[in-house]
Each structure stands twice: as C-alpha cells, then as structure tokens.
Amino acid sequence: MRNYELMCIIQPDLDETAFNGVLDKVKGWISESGGSIDKAEVWGRRKLAYIIDKHREGQYVLLNVTMEPAATFALERNLRYQESIMRHMLSVVG
Q: Where are the alpha helices (DSSP H) in 1-94?
C-alpha cells in the first residue's frame, strides 16, 4: 500500500448536492479498489490559472489516499471519464 495525494478540480456550477455526489463517487471508487481515504479537504471555489471548458473558477478538493499501486490505473480512468471533474492529479507522497 502506498500513500497518494489526489487533487481534483470540479466544475464550479454544480450545486451542493451534485458536488457531494461527485465526491462520494470518487470516494466509492477508492474504497471499491481496497483503498482508504485518510483525509479529505474541500478547499472550495478558487480562480483557475487559465480557462478550462469556458470556466474561470473551479471547486478544489484534496484527498489523501492509501491504496495499491495497481489500483491507480482504474481510478485515473474513472476520473478521466467523469465529466464533472475538469482536472485531476494523482501523486505519490513520500
């Protein structure tokens, strides 16, 4: 098991229930692959460095995750095809 940091930028025009639904879906993918979420921080709405899909802002979420390295491929594939997530970055911690 390795420690990872997952940063997601979610579309800013989602209401609170839709935002929480996307976040729960991501947490579910991590749990289904045998991983665990150590810490979840919602940074809120922030200005983007450049325009992404005609959006100037995004809702930032940082997740500290522990999971098997082989499970990261499926997680990244799911994140890539989730339309509500504009960008994501998964990096190894430590």
A: 16-32, 72-81
Q: What is the pLDDT of residues 42-60, one digit of tens each?
A: 999 999 999 999 999 999 9
Tens-place pLDDT, residues 75-90: 999 999 999 999 999 9
Rounded to an integer, what distance in angstroms lies between the CA atom of residue 21 and that of residue 67? 22
Domains of the chain, each with CATH number or no CATH? 2-92 (3.30.70.60)
Whole-angstrom distance, CA of residue 72 vs CA of residue 32: 12
Compute the distance between CA of residue 42 and CA of residue 59 in angstroms, rounded to an integer.
Answer: 8
The answer to whether the beta carbons of residues 94 and 54 sit under 8 Å apart is no
Does this model's pTM top 0.85? My answer is yes
